[in-house]
Design brief:
Blueprint (H helix, E strand, L loop, with lengths): L4 E7 L6 H15 L2 E7 L8 H6 L3 E4 L6 H14 L3 E4 L5 H10 L4 E6 L7 H16 L2 E5 L2 H11 L4 E2 L14 H10 L8 E5 L8 H10 L7 E5 L7 H9 L5 E5 L5 H6 L2 E4 L8 H8 L4 E4 L15 E3 L3 H12 L3 H19 L1 H13 L5 H4 L11
Parallel strand pairs: 1-2, 1-4, 2-3, 4-5, 5-6, 6-7, 8-9, 8-11, 9-10, 11-12, 12-13
Helix pairs in contact: 1-14, 3-4, 8-9, 8-12, 11-13
């Protein structure tokens, strides 16, 4: 085993979303390789997922974000005191200043993972481009989580990135067996004749849950599916209010922020994710990993799955488009559904399994100048920028 590495991950408020779930799930694999894990939360609070980090073995630090020199002085002191070998940045807001603070304490490696397709325009695009390229010149290695993110960074900011695809917890999200499916459906009070769609994710407008609710109202009442909706709603619960107003609330289970979403996927017949944009849909790959047919909006971060998974339903982001997509899912022939259940888990494991992602990040932690293509041919599909 190589010598132990001290790694600090810098995030915002710790929530059950993409980067956080990846890091918690992969903690045992990193620790088995001698990595000592710290996490800095820069949210107003540490966040609802903080306990999961602590339980996974991370040492937790908290510095509430402030746009002031004093805040970044505190961040730098923390980075310096920790004597980290690797400082791994995951934030977009003020990422330039976090990058400068990290470089100033001279760890062996500073990485920044870009977690979404941030296609800024105008003055912000110009500023972010300069900042990204300057950090790159100072030795901050930028990582893109998908081909869409890589291409956006190159096109909008002329920033070269290393492509390391996001991963999912491939040890838990596996093909659903018949008896497990039956138990999960009973847990949610579903019948054998219910057609069940599911979505997982925070309820920001970007996730576009309102299009699903409006699409439900466009379907004939006697053919509407049951919708399992997992996610922390915005203040005032506007999505529930919309469902009530459209008369579809009786077909929607608003489940809030679920600690464990696996039973929801095991109970479902299909997964829907009509996001306005994504960096890489980890919830989407979790659904595919359990063998579910899926409806995705044809946007950056979701269209990346098209090449690998046959029979995906792609739509626009309007309610009318989503309604048509749900109809397509409900009308999918049985042999096609069986093919999906058989193929998707194996494809997901091969392309986006957790062991692959951990191996590639470890290679960058230990050999930061290594080209991604030298690490894994799977990761380099579609080419990389080094």
């Amino acid at each position: 085993m190589s010598k132990p590495l001290r790694v600090l991950h810098v995030l915002g408020e710790l929530k059950p979303s993409g980067a956080e779930t990846m890091l918690v799930a992969a903690a045992p694999l990193f620790q088995a390789e001698g990595v000592m894990l710290d996490v800095l939360s820069t949210g107003a609070t540490t966040g609802p997922y903080a306990r999961r980090f602590v339980d996974a073995g991370y040492r937790l630090h908290h510095l509430p974000f402030s746009r002031s020199p004093g805040f970044f002085i505190k961040v730098r002191r923390l980075m310096q005191a920790g004597q980290y070998d690797v400082i791994h940045l995951h934030v977009e807001a003020a990422n330039f200043w976090f990058g400068l603070a990290a470089r100033s304490v001279r760890p062996a490696v500073v990485l920044r993972t870009v977690h979404n397709a941030f296609a800024f325009t105008g003055n912000l695009q110009w500023r972010r481009g300069i900042q990204r390229r300057l950090l790159n010149r100072l030795g901050v290695r930028h990582v893109a989580i998908s081909a869409s993110v890589r291409d956006t960074e190159q096109r909008h900011y002329r920033l070269p990135t290393t492509l390391i695809w996001n991963w999912y917890n491939s040890l838990r999200f596996t093909a659903t067996q018949a008896e497990v499916r039956a138990a999960a459906r009973a847990q949610f009070g579903l019948t054998d004749t219910d057609f069940v769609i599911a979505s997982i994710g925070n309820c920001s407008p970007i996730k576009n849950h309102t299009a699903v609710i409006e699409a439900m109202a466009m379907l004939p009442a006697d053919t509407r599916p049951v919708y399992l909706h997992a996610g922390i709603e915005e203040d005032g619960q506007p999505e529930r209010a919309l469902a009530q107003r459209l008369g579809v609330a009786d077909r929607i289970h608003f489940l809030g922020g679920m600690g464990d979403v696996l039973p929801l996927l095991q109970a479902a017949d299909a997964y829907v994710m009509p996001s306005i944009y994504e960096g890489f849909g980890i919830a989407a790959i979790e659904a595919l990993g359990t063998g579910l047919p899926a409806l995705f909006s044809d946007v950056a971060g979701l269209r990346d799955f098209r090449e690998d998974f046959p029979h995906l339903v792609y739509t626009g982001t309007s309610a009318e488009d989503v309604a048509a997509g749900i109809k397509a899912l409900m009308g999918m022939p049985l042999d096609q559904r069986k093919s999906i259940c058989a193929q998707y888990p194996a494809i997901a494991q091969r392309r986006f399994g957790m062991e692959r992602g951990v191996r590639e990040y470890l290679a960058l932690y230990r050999h930061p100048n290594l080209h991604a293509a030298a690490m894994s041919p799977q990761s380099a599909r579609g080419g990389t920028h080094a």
